[in-house]
Queue: 3 jobs
Job 1
Amino acid sequence: MALGDDEPPRESRLRLVLRLGLACFFVVAGVLHFVRPTVYVQVVPPSLPWPLALVYLSGALEIVGGCAVIPVR
């Protein structure tokens, strides 16, 4: 990379695309916890209390995790 060249190397662009893809995956999955909670409630083990609350909590945490991997420049 030459001095003054603002374009990132190819590897950096690939990592950026992969991180954005991962972020989108997590955010969409997290939103789906709120849109279709019954699908997720069905997979919560019966031994855990408050399955709907746990689905909402895990959805919120997935959204936060997805936002956390978005690269900041």
Job 2
Amino acid sequence: PGQDIRYIEEKVSSASNYLNKIWNSARYVLDVCGENFEPIDIDFDKLEPIEKDILTKMSLTIKTVSSSMDKYEYSMASSHLYNFVYDDFCSTYLEMSKVSLQGNNEEYKKTVKSILLYILKNIIIMIYPYAPFIGEELYLALPNHKKSIMLETYPEAIKYNVGLEGFKSLSEVENLYTMIQDIRNYKVSNKLAPNYKLRFVIETKEKPFNGFENYLFRFSFAKEIEVVSESKSNGIKYVYSEMNLYIEDEISEDEIKAKKDKDIAFLKAEIARGEGMLNNPNFVSKAPKEKVELERKKLADNKAKLAQIE
């Protein structure tokens, strides 16, 4: 507010990626639902915690976006919608919904599809003031659409009756999402493959909502999950609201040997490369002194690492 906006190429690219994200999510939802799908009424009280969580976040987003728009704070409104689209809908719920859509409960599958369409429609209507052409195009692809998005009413926030138990389960949903992210970060920091199987122990006084372990299995590639009231695990501990997670990395002798052989082969190849460069008179005489010294240091470090492993 109160200042001109400079043209910045990175912002154009970021906006393009954002709209592309919405476009691809719309394609996915419409493909999942199929051409002849008729949305059904959503009974919030009968939903699983994952679905309750995304609907409450959708309602909060509508409220904050509408409030910002009423105050002419268009940048803030866009920011609230952006965060919901990226973090809550596309990166999280679209992935979680795949578990429900692969289940055997056909009636609940219809409910999940109806929720996906409901959220997608709200996103399209809210993005319309910022991106009218894409908004109109996506809207006309929705089932039961009007002649134009201009004939639609703006989304209204729904006040859901969550209740005490509901708040507890929504807290567990946040724990689940944070656990999955922590496990992924653990694998990255330890240079493990994304699908590397680990054993997890969840310590909690009360068992989490039904399906909690299924989601954790699916998105963390768990080898085994144990839920206990009191844990004596020596694994790496992560603390959450009302529960703790222990990551136990059980590596077999074969896996240890395979990793050791791989590390040895890599270090030997690096040593051979370094020695080849340093034994080349042209490289030593013509390359910058800093580069030559760096290669000598690398060679010494790799030889020391190889001696430790062998």
Job 3
Amino acid sequence: ERALTPKTGDAMDIQHLKYFVQVIKNQSFTKAAEKLVVTQPMLSRVINQLEEELDIKLIERTSKHFKTTDAGELLYQQALKVLHTHNDIYQYINDLKSAKSGEVLISIPGVLLDMYFPPLLFEFHQKYPHVKLDIIEEGSKLTAQSVLSDQVELGFVMLPVRNASKLTSRIVTTSICHVLVNKEHRFATRSTPIHTSELVEERIITFSTTATLHDAFIRHCENEGFEPNLVYKTLMPNFIFEMVHLGLCIGILPYPVVKRFIFDGLVSIPLEPKIIWEIAVISKKDNYLSFAARNFLSFVEEYSVRKGKEWQGLE
């Protein structure tokens, strides 16, 4: 037997399948035409076209008789699946546009993740329960690389970052860095800021080499004519605070981190000249952002405005 293959110029489309399904559901051309708000002759022509294309009878009909053939029943079942998938496509697109679903890939330093994200993610999940946030934890420098290499859509970093001209940055919070000492240290009773030049002989702990603060602090000291004695480097704030508490070193940290983790026996004093701790959410310039990512970005910007003083460590 001749195998069935599509003919050139076939007219079968979604609308035709909708018409066919409605005819079968109603077991009547007249009732189907009324529901579809089309004429019965037009409906008959559509079914005839389908039969011609498929080269097989789909419906046995007379003035008193209506019966779906085996081929008609097969087409009916498959058409239901096609129409269901067709409707799903529009629903999925609408869900993406409204950020009801989707996934956002984000890179963020652990200290920011710990400080800011639990309550932020809680609120975001309440607003967009079906959006998945896939978070990679890494330092600011690695975060910028991940954004530029398209491994993630969004990243949270301390500014400045390399290749800034290739990135779009939106600042979400700004603060300054403090010197952290234990209560027995000579700086503990200071009522005025500590000048960077006073740190020449100090043993210092700060964020590790993957953090922007690490390089910013070294440059800061070099501008004062010396290389800082960085005896410990880590991305774990609790470790820094414990080491300073034991008197093994002093710490250089952003004030919001100090405010969050400080405990009795420790003192923080502003550093001058100031090291600005400027946190931004970055994306690759001119890159397409998914609807879910755009909504997350808008949410973060709005949330950071509400949490302004709290995020700066002023509350």
